Amino acid sequence: VQIVESGGGLVQPGGSLRLSCAASGFTFGSYVLSWFRQAPGKERERVSCISRSGTTTYYSDAVKGRFTISRDNSETAVYLQMNSLKPEDTAVYYCSAARETCFSARFPRQYDYWGQGTQVTVSS
Fold first, then answer.
1. Phi/psi of residue 87, nearest 5 degrees
2. Angle ∠(21,51,11) on CA atoms, nearest 5
3. How confident is the model over 7-42, as pLDDT tens digits?
4. For the chain, how far is it from start to end, CA to CA, in angstroms?
């Protein structure tokens, strides 16, 4: 199993970034995919989740209306478009896969596979 995130970096407040996650080694279409983030000294939190078919998405209140998750099952990839970025969005962002539904899979312990993370820093 391999999950590799990319697309992080330094961006000014109000800017945008698009994170990508390339997955292989498991039955991609059988898993829901989530983006988590972890800031220094804080717990890892789920930012967004997308269902197996891609028709249902979930967002945390902190990012709703600013972030958009999508997936391409043919390419075994998932994306996170982040707009109107704020300094409080600064964190390491992780891509992860779970066999449960997005509704139930809210916590890191419920996820089977993880990437190594990509750093997002929002600062002027």
1. -55, -35
2. 40
3. 999 999 999 999 999 999 999 999 999 999 999 999
4. 37
